[in-house]
Amino acid sequence: MSDAGSGPLRGVRVVELASELGAFAGKLLADMGADVVLVEPPGGHPTRWFGPFVDDVPDPEGSLWFWHYNTSKRGVVVELEREPDVFRRLLEGADIVLEAEPPMRLASLGLDHTDLRPDRPGLIWVSVTPFGRNGPSRDLPATDLTILAGGGPAWSCGYDDHTLPPVRGGGNQGLHTACIWAANAALVALLHRDAGGVGQHVDVSAHAAANVTTEAATYEWLVAQATVQRQTGRHAAVVPTRWVRTTAADGVDVHPGFPPRRPGEFRQVLDWLGELGLADACPDTEVVRLGAEMDRDIQLGQVGEDPLATEIFGAGRDAVRFIANHLPGREFFVGAQRRGLTAGVVQSPEEVLDDPHVRARGWPVAVHHESLGRTVTYPGVPIRFTGTPATVRAPAPRLGEHDAELL
Question: Confidence band (pLDDT; 50, 70, 90) for 300?
């Protein structure tokens, strides 16, 4: 492992009980420099058997899922039921405990925050559970799918054809959402403690975290009793919006993004059409010109209510799509970005890792696996710190790799 003090969380010690629900929070803290000690049961945590596996060979030391979520951590094996004192000793000098255990398990072992924090007033204890540590739902099971469905994000994801059911966002978004809230809350509690306070118990509900991360869906209902409608490839909205995704001249799918609604943005579209020699061919040019001559922005509340604003708003979107149809996908994407227009190009995972912007940011990271005798490319840390660089410092620990060092 490289220098544990290389990130902004240098000197912070975290003890993490291995779990599916809290692993990403531990990874975020570890990649930012915290010394995260992952505690696994004998035989390893079940997530070691989550596929896919390196070289397609099922192996608890080769789970790509486990590799991704446990970078930069150290690992030990502790049987909590038989070795509670070993776990207690691990807490000596720890700043944060991160756990996602069923609410009553640690209490039954005398290892819950109410048992261990009284003797450690500075210890911050972060619990991540499906529905929080108290309340009538606290013992109910959950998965990433049920968190996204019950919390609300799935309602906003899907297709214009509402005979089709909602769609779960991929990539463990329910787990990630809970873990981002957990990591942020842990750091806020750390700031509070270091400013003269004491350690706190941070109780994170994955269900609640998903519910407040529904873009406008939850708030539309709470404030206006209005229900957003899911739409193909665009934001869910109470009033359906126009189709946006289109195909560039080279057959690549592109997303024209959020339509122009400010006079300056409409002028950028007009100038772009002129540079490409497409102004006369585009059927929306004159309406876009009206947008460029406006003395105020189009407000979203006007769309669907004010006929002229609605027409100009739609023309801006259609004109950007028209440009996209006449350019190669990558050229359209870069051109839009240079003009301050939101747009995207649909890329495969390998294209993302090879994207010039992504590479310039240093996001793909080469991590050497001694056991494999080769280097593997990982997604890196998406946040840059100029004075305390954060990075993936080491691969996930092998089972019990640091037992001798830590126990």
Answer: confident
- pTM > 0.90: yes
Helical segments of 276-340, H only: 285-292, 307-325, 329-338
Task: Mention every residue, 6+ apart, whose C-beta is less than 8 A from residue 278.
Answer: 322, 323, 326
Q: What is d(CA 248, CA 323) in angstroms, rounded to the nearest whole number?
A: 9
Sign of the CA dihedral with 282 first, then 287, 289, and 292 last: negative
CA 381 vs CA 8, 24, 29, 156, 391: distances in Å: 12, 12, 11, 28, 6
Contacts of residue 383, defined as CB under 8 A and 6 or more positions apart, other chains included, come to 32, 390
* Token duo for residue 266: 């409409």
* pLDDT at residue 2 is higher than 80: no
DSSP 169-213: -TTTHHHHHHHHHHHHHHHHHHHHHHTT----EEEEEHHHHHHT-
Q: Which two tokens stand for residue 397?
A: 């620990």
The closest of 174, 122, 184, 180 to 151, measured between CA atoms, is 174
Looking up tokens 């959020």, which residue turns up? 258
How far is residue 101's CA from residue 27's CA, in Å, rounded to a whole number?
Answer: 17
Q: pLDDT digits over 146-189, tens only? A: 999 999 999 999 999 999 999 998 999 999 999 999 999 999 99
Collect all residues with Cβ–Cβ distance below 8 Å to 197 and sequence separation of at least 6.
none
Burial of 239 (0-12, 13-18, 19+ CB in 10 A): exposed
Residues 12-69: tens digit of each pLDDT: 999 999 999 999 999 999 999 999 999 999 999 999 999 999 999 999 999 999 999 9
Burial (CB count within 10 angstroms: exposed 0-12, middle 13-18, buried 19+), residue 396 = buried
- Of the candidates 255, 132, 122, which has an alpha carbon nearest to the alpha carbon of residue 190? 122
Residues 41 and 77 sit within 8 Å (Cβ to Cβ): yes
Distance CA 168, CA 398 (A): 32
Both tokens of residue 205?
A: 């509900």
Residue count of the chain: 407
Tell me if residue 246 falls in helix, strand or coil: strand
pLDDT tens figures, 233-279: 888 999 888 788 899 999 999 998 888 999 999 999 999 999 999 99
